[in-house]
Write a structure and sequence with these properties.
The complex is a heterotrimer of chains A (79), B (411) and C (370).
Chain A (H helix, E strand, L loop, with lengths): L1 H24 L2 H22 L7 H15 L8
Helix pairs in contact in A: 1-2
Chain B lengths: L1 H22 L10 E11 L6 E8 L1 H6 L10 E8 L2 H7 L7 E3 L5 E5 H5 L3 H9 L8 E5 L4 H5 L9 H16 L7 H9 L6 E9 L17 E12 L2 E6 L1 H11 L5 E6 L7 E18 L2 E17 L9 H30 L6 H8 L1 H7 L3 H7 L1 E12 L16
Parallel strand pairs in B: 1-4, 1-5, 5-6, 6-7, 12-13
Antiparallel strand pairs in B: 1-2, 2-3, 7-8, 8-9, 10-11, 11-12
Chain C lengths: L10 H17 L3 H4 L7 H25 L5 H43 L6 H17 L2 H24 L22 H11 L5 H4 L9 H27 L9 H7 L11 H30 L9 H15 L3 H9 L1 H34 L1
The chains are: A mainly alpha (79), B alpha/beta (411), C mainly alpha (370).
Chain lengths: 79, 411, 370
């Protein structure tokens, strides 16, 4: 829980650091992209801090690439 | 504006790693809490299937006070610990060690003879995997005793056992060439290279009568058990198969081109029962493999330069060219004998290619080697090895001719 | 439309950041040697890799020069239309993001493995991300100037690391050459090209060169110099470690640990770690800059420097969750990851050139009819 509070603090600092600068220039579109990225980062961080298992695209990429790699004679023992 | 910003970022980039490594965040280690193990010995423990390691740990307080005055305390502490694996045994050391033992400054990895004969495979991985151990550690096998006894051999001229042993090792390799200095990196490579069996230095105990000094253990004047680094241990795979004596070891070093210096004793020409010593200046060698009709053979060419160091009877090189050249011939003959001695024991007794002939064949004839390598054990003892030695004497020291001793035999 | 990035970089800086980009995995995991069954041939695979990469780099540069002042994200929208162009942009974005995730995790793992096993890995990754975001936020010009300095430091440290273990080197370890057939060369080549395909970032940099016409020349220099650095690394590693060269997790770090000149000049690995950190920070800040610019150009934003810190947070979070272990990371970098980035880079280039060809043909016909 302490980690989550720390994360909230960190992301608030990032927000407080950037948002006034964006607002001063009146860039609403930028604010939208910025906040969605920030929220995405925050969500991921909190999920990891709470040790929620996240799906990793690494497995998918491996499954896609393994047939090609096998053609080249490269074997991986990780699925 | 741009420049200032750039400087600011640079400063930031530079500061972060420094702060990270200096404070060390979590992995902080105070010098007061650690003890450096200087060499580590590996043996079988008394319990079946367990490994015993023995280290000697430097006592910082004994060293720091001992620079000028006499210290009544040994500057090191030897301690053993057991476990199912080397790593576990090493960790178990913490049961007895009030300071955290670290291997960053270790110099030696010693295997006991009994352990080495059983194979060192199960013990060697730890040393390359563990970040504290440098690959520049020297690997040694203790002859006839457990590694635990050799690890803390004391030497009169050095306070720390490991420093003493390292000093002996370096000098013996440079000035005698009768031992081999094998680092952990060399050792691992020899284990992994096809057609090249491993060798390490051989450590022996030297026992002297115990001191009878009335001042007792702490004020010892002499050291009762010391060590010697001489000869070599020959492995086959990961198992110790036997020992090379000093002559055979130098034979091995001739072939590998690693002879740096040493003394060759020959019979003085034209004199009976008199000897001459030749100091080796430098030597080189080439090992050329050849395969004809699927039959491998090896040509060893050794070149050696020497100085005449000593004669036991009057000698003047200006008097006859023949004596000088016959000295060179005898020097070459001794070198050839040393190489043959090493070849014989490796071929007939050990059946272990400690010279790396197989590896040489693999480098020159990689295709043929793929067929040869599986039957190399049978091929190696039958291998034709031709030795060509070219020895030459360069100088005769400060005396041109020997001093004469005028004998008044009639009396 | 406002200019997003106002900075200009010199050709030499362009070359320096490209070399740093390629040298980061070299100083850390050096997948080429770890994936070679017979390490003697690795330097040959470096040469082959460079020979394949030079045309790739030249093609990317030439394409960028056809659209002066436009990044690969912008001109792919021109060539392929706004929808497919944007999709391609997203794929490129994904590649950049993956690369930054890989190297963030890689540096963290290296620190944990090499010196501080008890420290949580995210400590290093967060530090790195903050450094890189800070540098990237200062603009391309600052990043590239830093990149040039770091390049000199890197070359110095690398050459030192190659030369100083000379008393442990045995050059006969390099023989036999090419004794195990060509199939043994494939895994290192795939790993090498996988990293080299990150040179797609050239498409983001060329518009900001002060003399864009120099781009081709410096791109070739970058491939050659990074190739030489890698070939020397392979030679030094094999000379020192022989057949055990492919057993190390961090080969160059282990190489630097072999340095001992007398008793006074030991423990040079601190310099190697400084080189890791600085070069990874530069690479990451370049990637953060490229990702933010890509996002800005995909979504028609007017400013992009605000996106750095959120991006850093996402990168750190994803690099923690992407890989289960160092083994997982190494395997991915050298095999599936490498293969996928080769495919993406190759197909992107093929697609763009095909579109360019079609466009030229249509134009000519129009010109002919009109």
């Amino acid at each position: 829980m302490a980690t989550v509070i720390l994360l909230i603090a960190v992301f608030t600092v990032i927000g407080l650091f950037e948002v006034p600068k964006i607002l001063k220039k009146g860039l609403w579109r930028e604010l939208l992209v910025f906040s969605s990225l920030l929220i995405l980062g925050f969500t991921l961080s909190v999920l990891i801090a709470l040790e929620v298992p996240l799906p990793s695209p690494v497995k998918g990429i491996r499954n896609l690439m393994n047939p090609i790699l096998r053609l080249l004679g490269i074997h991986t023992h990780l699925s | 504006m741009r420049v200032r910003r750039y400087m600011r970022v640079w400063a930031f980039l530079a500061i972060v790693p420094v702060v990270l490594s200096v404070t060390g965040c979590w992995s902080r280690r105070e010098i007061e809490d650690i003890g450096f193990a200087l060499s580590i010995g590996v043996d079988h423990a008394a319990e079946e299937g367990e490994i015993m390691i023995t280290v000697h740990i430097a006592k910082p307080f004994a060293i720091s006070t001992g620079v000028t005055g006499a210290v009544d305390e040994k500057p090191f502490w030897q301690v053993s610990s057991t476990g199912h694996t080397v790593f576990e045994a090493w960790r178990n050391l913490r049961q007895q060690c009030p300071r955290r033992p670290l291997l960053h400054h270790s110099r030696f990895i010693v295997f006991g003879e009994e352990f080495a004969r059983g194979g060192i495979r199960e013990a060697i991985d730890f040393f390359s995997r563990e970040g504290e151990v440098r690959e520049t550690n020297t690997v040694v096998v203790a002859k006839g005793v457990k590694a635990s006894e050799v690890v803390w051999n004391e030497f009169e001229l050095e306070r720390m056992p490991a420093e003493g042993a390292l000093g002996i090792m370096k000098i013996a390799v440079q000035e005698l060439s009768t031992t081999v200095m094998v680092t952990l990196n060399d050792f691992l490579q020899m284990l992994e290279t096809e057609g090249h069996e491993a060798t390490t230095s051989r450590a022996e105990l030297v026992r002297r009568p115990p001191s009878e000094d009335p001042r007792g253990e702490l004020k010892r004047e002499t050291i009762s058990v010391s060590g010697r680094e001489t000869g070599a241990a020959a492995f086959k795979g990961d198992k110790l198969v036997g020992w090379l004596d000093k002559t055979q070891t130098r034979g091995l070093q001739w072939v590998k081109g690693k002879v740096r210096s040493g003394i060759i004793v020959i019979e003085q020409p034209e004199e009976e029962n008199k000897l001459a010593s030749i100091e080796i200046l430098r030597a080189d060698s080439t090992v050329t493999p050849k395969i004809s009709n699927g039959h491998p053979s090896i040509l060893i060419r050794v070149g050696a330069l020497g100085n005449l160091g000593e004669v036991q009877e009057y000698f003047d090189p200006m008097e006859s060219q023949e004596t000088w050249t016959s000295m060179e011939r005898r020097m070459a003959e001794v070198i050839r004998h040393e190489i043959e001695a090493a070849l014989d024991i490796a071929k007939l007794e050990f059946d272990s290619d400690i010279f790396g002939f197989g590896a040489e064949i693999c480098r020159k004839y990689p295709k043929e080697w793929t067929d040869l390598k599986d039957k190399w054990d049978e091929e190696f003892p039958k291998l034709d090895v031709e030795i060509e030695v070219e020895a030459s004497l360069r100088r005769s020291g400060l005396t041109r001719r020997s001093m004469r001793v005028v004998r008044n035999e009639g009396g | 439309m406002t200019v997003l990035e106002g900075g200009k970089i010199s050709g030499r800086q362009f070359m320096a950041v490209l070399i740093v980009l390629r040298a980061v995995p070299l100083t850390l995991v050096f997948s080429l040697i770890s994936n070679a069954n017979h390490v003697q041939d690795v330097w040959i695979t470096v040469i082959i890799g460079a020979a394949v990469t030079i045309p790739f780099a030249v093609l990317v540069t030439k394409l960028s020069l056809k659209f002066p002042g436009k990044t690969i994200i912008e001109y792919s929208q021109i060539l392929l239309g706004p929808v497919i162009g944007r999709l391609l942009g997203l794929v490129i974005l994904w590649c950049f993001l993956c690369t930054s995730i890989d190297i963030t995790r890689g540096l963290g793992e290296a620190y944990v493995i090499a010196i501080m096993p008890e420290t949580p890995i995210y400590a290093f990754m967060i530090m790195l991300a903050i450094m890189s975001c800070y540098a990237a936020r200062s603009g391309l010009e600052v990043t590239c100037r830093l990149g040039e300095d770091v390049f000199y430091v890197l070359v110095f440290v690398l050459l030192l690391t190659y030369m100083l273990p000379y008393n442990a080197m045995r050059f006969e370890n390099l023989r036999p050459i090419l004794a195990w057939g060509v199939s043994n060369l494939v895994p290192p080549i795939v790993a090498n090209l996988g990293y080299y395909s990150q040179f797609l970032v050239i498409g983001m940099l060329v518009p900001y060169l002060n003399k864009p016409e120099d781009a081709t020349r410096y791109a070739i220099y970058a491939v050659l110099i990074s190739g030489v650095l890698m070939a020397l690394a392979a030679v030094a590693l094999v000379a020192v470690f022989g057949p055990t060269a492919n057993s190390w997790t961090l080969p160059l770090f282990s190489l630097s640990r072999m340095i001992s000149l007398g008793d006074f000049f030991e423990r040079i690995e601190a310099a190697v770690m400084a080189a890791w950190t600085l070069s990874t920070a530069i690479k990451l800040s370049l990637l953060f800059w490229a990702i933010s610019l890509t996002i800005a150009q995909l979504f028609n934003l007017k400013a992009f420097e605000h996106l750095m810190y959120p991006l850093g947070a996402i990168t750190v979070a994803l690099s923690l969750s992407f890989f289960e272990s160092m083994v997982d990371l190494e395997d991915f970098l050298a095999k599936a990851g490498a293969m996928s980035s080769i495919l993406v880079a190759g197909l992107t280039l093929a697609l763009l050139y095909a579109a360019l060809g079609v466009r030229t043909v249509i134009r000519r016909r129009k010109g002919g009819s009109g």
